[in-house]
Design a protein that fits this description.
Strand order of the largest sheet: 3-4-2-5-1-6-7-8
Shape: globular
Radius of gyration: 18 Å
Largest sheet: 8 strands, mixed
Helix content: 40-55%
CATH topology: Rossmann fold
Strand content: 15-25%
CATH class: Alpha Beta
CATH architecture: 3-Layer(aba) Sandwich
Distance between the termini: 39 Å
Number of helices: 11
């Protein structure tokens, strides 16, 4: 891999957030791609790393056709800098190749390579977002372990809540993650996100916190409304924050960015 430029003494390493979910289909990659654009609008230098190794789809969401991917970096066919692309929305992306069976399990090589990539890019940005795979596979859990913070994306659907709870439980038990951020996507009415957070928190207080011997707290950092503009943007392979930033979902994503920055 090519060497990263030295960070200035006055600039700190990027804040690294893993964006994950208990199940697929809840809009995790949509949130990753669009909150990165919101953060960029708010003045941050952002990189999104597609860490869904083997089942990557960030390129589809962004309508990008990369000639160089993380797979090329991992195999030594390309340097890291060549794999970093400018995405719609003004931020940078590192895309993973899809359909790579070798990344379906966590080998020592994948572990080392992923850690090295993150170490190299962290000094260059204010924030690095890791768009992980869904679920609690070994690859997903290792990727999450590299982050400073974890953001779980869920919807109000019962299956999503069940899987979000399972993810939070595993993270608390295996990584001692006692503070986890939550964004609720596809909310149908105001306050539904707060109700989802409260429901999950009650189950966590009853079953998880006593097991790990420490309070596990969920922080609701965003509610994204169910919005026809989202479906239209996904079908057109457009970034919502570029085309419809004033839509209900766009306003929710902007608010999520500000919350992640600690502005509100």
């Amino acid at each position: 891999m090519s060497a990263a430029p030295a960070a200035s003494a006055s600039r700190r390493r990027a804040s690294i957030t893993a964006i994950t979910s208990g199940k697929g289909g809840v809009g995790k990659t949509f949130v990753s791609a669009n909150v990165a654009a919101a953060l960029t609008r708010q003045g941050e230098r952002v990189l999104v790393l597609d860490a869904d190794l083997g089942l990557a789809n960030l390129d589809v969401v962004l309508n990008l056709f990369p000639k160089v991917t993380l797979h090329d970096v991992f195999t030594g066919r390309s340097g890291l800098q060549e794999a970093i692309l400018k995405a719609p929305g003004g931020y940078s992306v590192l895309l993973a190749g899809s359909g790579m069976v070798e990344y379906s399990r966590l080998t020592p090589e994948v572990r080392e390579q992923l850690q090295q990539v993150i170490n190299e890019v962290a000094p260059r940005y204010d924030r690095v977002l890791l768009d992980t795979g869904a679920g609690i596979s070994e690859v997903v859990l290792y990727t999450v372990s590299l982050a400073d913070k974890v953001l779980v994306v869920a919807t109000p659907e019962p299956t999503s809540l069940t899987d979000a709870y399972a993810t939070i439980k595993v993270l608390a038990m295996t990584q001692k993650r006692y503070a986890i951020q939550l964004v609720v996507n596809q909310v149908r009415k105001q306050g539904e996100g707060r109700a989802v957070r409260q429901q999950l928190q009650q189950v966590i207080d009853r079953y998880v916190s006593p097991t790990v011997g420490h309070p596990v707290k969920l922080e609701l950092v965003g509610e994204i409304p169910l919005d026809v503009n989202v479906r239209n943007a996904v079908l057109k392979r457009e970034l919502l924050m570029e085309k419809q930033s004033g839509s209900p979902a766009g306003i929710g994503l902007s608010a999520l960015g500000m919350k992640l920055r600690g502005v509100v």
